Amino acid sequence: MFKRRRPAIQVKTAEQVELMRAAGLLVGRTLQVLRDAVKPGISTLELDAIAEAHIRDNGGVPSFLGYHGFTGTICASVNEEIVHGIPRPDKRLRDGDVISIDCGAIVEGWHGDAAVTVPVGEITPELQRLLDVTEAALWRGLAAGRAGARLTDMSHAIESYVRSQGPYGIVEGYGGHGIGTEMHMDPLIPNHGEPGHGPVLVPGMCFAVEPMVNLGTKDSLELDDGWTVVTTDGRHSAHFEHTFAVTEDGPRVLTALDEGREWFAEPDGERKS
């Protein structure tokens, strides 16, 4: 009997990481434009058009458009929709909603991938807390992605932080992934698990880390459209994501405009208020 071999993880050169930084910056700037465009009354398809125009006008190609038949440049997931929401003309945002906007771009054959959950107008303190916890969990996961660490150290950092903050549901079956010359590459990075397992991280590896956290149950289901994933109890979800590179000096967050310096400057990983 042969032992199953673990899939190889693509390791980039310093020059290739710089190309991924170009793609990452385009994604980060596109998400900034979209965040500013979110308001009550706008449709998710209108946001999608803004994203596609910004990516193409700045020398990139949308990663998501046409991916296994997906029809959007962004995934636009509102309220109880966790991920993979299809942009639609009839899906108009309302005051008090939250929307996860997931965006990817290709520059010179290299991918960037990131997501942010944005409040629409005024949201409840409970929802704001959900967004804050999920974003902070993302940065805990990124901080754990250091050379010499194991893959599941990132998973454990995310889970342990979320568990410490309240009875939130951590979505299973979806998670982060390798990224580089393809948008989705080995390995899968769950948002839960024990530390100390999986491959050792080395400089040049690049990953997308993306916690998905629910107000209620962790359970999810895919709708009949074949894409949209929702919570089974109808309660809200939040989703944040960044692409980063493992370096000798720590994680370099390729889709953050400042490469994560503001977040990592705080000893506990929290952003300055």
Describe this protein's structure.
With 273 residues, the chain is of the alpha+beta class. It has a single domain (14-264), classed as Creatinase/methionine aminopeptidase superfamily (Creatine Amidinohydrolase, Alpha-Beta Complex). It is 28% helix and 23% strand. The protein has five helices and 15 strands. The chain has helices at 14-37, 44-57, 125-143, 151-165, 261-264, and strands at 61-62, 74-78, 81-83, 98-107, 110-119, 169-170, 176-178, 185-189, 206-209, 212-214, 220-222, 229-231, 237-239, 242-245, 252-253. The strands form four sheets. The chain has a five-stranded antiparallel beta sheet with strand order 8-7-9-14-15. A hairpin with a 2-residue loop joins β4 (98-107) and β5. α1 packs antiparallel against α2 (44-57) and α3 (125-143) runs antiparallel to α4 (151-165). It is globular, with a radius of gyration of 17 Å.
How would you summarize what this structure contains?
This protein is of the alpha+beta class and 273 residues long.
Layout of secondary structure:
Layout: H1 14-37, H2 44-57, E1 61-62, E2 74-78, E3 81-83, E4 98-107, E5 110-119, H3 125-143, H4 151-165, E6 169-170, E7 176-178, E8 185-189, E9 206-209, E10 212-214, E11 220-222, E12 229-231, E13 237-239, E14 242-245, E15 252-253, H5 261-264
Antiparallel strand pairs: 1-4, 2-4, 3-12, 4-5, 6-10, 7-8, 7-9, 9-14, 10-13, 11-12, 14-15
Helix pairs in contact: 1-2, 3-4
